[in-house]
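Morning, I've got a small favour to ask if you have a moment. I owe you a coffee for this, so here goes:
>
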Amino acid sequence: MGLGCRWLQVGCVAAIVQAASGLALSADPQVVAGPASGFAELRRDWFDADAAPQSTSLLELAAAQAATSDANSPADEDLYDVAFRGGNDRLFGLFGRSDREFWHFVSPQSNPLFFEDPRTLTELRLHFANQWIPNSNPVFQGGTAQYVAAQIRVAITERLSVIATKDGYFWLNPANPGVADTEGFADIGGGLKYNFYRNCETQTLASAGFTYCMPSGAQRVFQGNGNGEWHLFLSGGKEFFGCAHWVSGAGLRIPNDGTAQSKMSYWSNSFDVQLTKRIYALTQVNWFHWYDSGNALAANFEGNDLFNLGSNDVAGNDIVTASYGTRLKFGSYHEAGIAYEIPLTQRKDLLESRLYLDLTLRY
């Protein structure tokens, strides 16, 4: 859309709203006209009553936003951006905006519970996965497993965020008639992520963090075992040629009770190409390695990222998987995606293939 059309649209909408309701929004002129950083508003102390923003009309706010918008950033705000932000420009007055300096990046798709986006984000991400189990599995003999979940991430500062990465619900439907169908809640896990390197000019960033997974789920779907599990991770990303990205993440899963759960490491890599302004093609490769067995199940297979079975004969096992998918950006900063994952190694354990669907809403 040309600059003139953009100004006309912004002016008409603002004028109609203002004439109908006489509404005025509280906004900080310094923030509106400030630098392009999505965290410019965080320089103010949001607990300080003396830092209360001045009143600016909707027309002035919209015009200033249009004048300062960046071609590499979202061109508009979504409804809840205005509806739920406080006078300090934080969501519900508490949480900072997602980092908008890396707007062309997209989130990884497979290994969703552990492969962490390196950006500082405030988002709600909804997941659905349908997994087909190999017919060769000695216990399940085929069948399916489904998983639904909602991940939440909130920016506390420009670099620090709280992440809630695991919750949700499982359904298990084995093909083996001797193993009953079952369902139940997943364990709950969350932690912190810190963006320790951030270079906007080269579009490079790196983060580190941890999560703790509480044994709060249903044991009938292989949750709620042991005394909890720690996840330590690193993740980073880099843009190439202005239209391609490499995001890489590695981590360790360390249970407090090594007899109830196995110990695993992983390395995940996501490669994407921006096909249009809103559509991306992605491929991802995941390497899962079990470096210590548990002692809860007499088996030589494990549950990859979704389950930790505590099998007693998996130390030294490796599985490599690949996923292929696409992502769509919509609104100012949101994403939706679909991907299909298959194992590349002869060893499959519980993964014959998996379908992913996700929806991400960001502030």
Residues 1-10, 12-59, 65-71 have pLDDT under 50 and may be disordered.
